[in-house]
Amino acid sequence: MDIKLHRPHGCCHHSRRAFVPGELLYSALTRGPTGLERIDCAAECWSGPPEQTLAWWRSTFPAAQGGGPELAPVDVLLDVLEQLDGQPDDAALRYLLALELVRRRVLRLVDRRGAVVTPPESDSLHVACRRRDTTYSVAVMPPSQADIAAVQDRLTTLLWSGGAA
Known about the structure:
Elements (H helix, E strand, L loop, with lengths): L23 E9 L2 E8 L10 E8 L13 H10 L7 H13 L3 E3 L14 E6 L4 E6 L8 H14 L4
Antiparallel strand pairs: 1-2, 1-3, 4-5, 5-6
């Protein structure tokens, strides 16, 4: 039987005082009316495991982790979009990156004269960037079935790290 335990609650079960990172605490897994429950107690409030305890342990309250991965800055993504211009092996990546920037409203679809349009059914996508006061022509090149996983990995790495793909 797999039991999934969540991280410790942010405060003591008895005193309701918030834990600080690195603080010693005791946790117990008990049977409650709704099933298994986790109880976290500050060391000064711990008087032993409560009734119906299946397991208990001593640990320290974890330090807050960073907010996790962050989206790459828009300027980095625009730099990559420009760098990928004229590289046929990266056409699918450039196309998907352009679509992502349209979705984020960094780029907008335009016709060759600069007027805003709906998505074209042609072989190239024309997009304008107010931030850089320029337009880009991007080949409409969805990845092939064989390349989907590789392009997806490169795009994910690019979007979430800001590094070059």
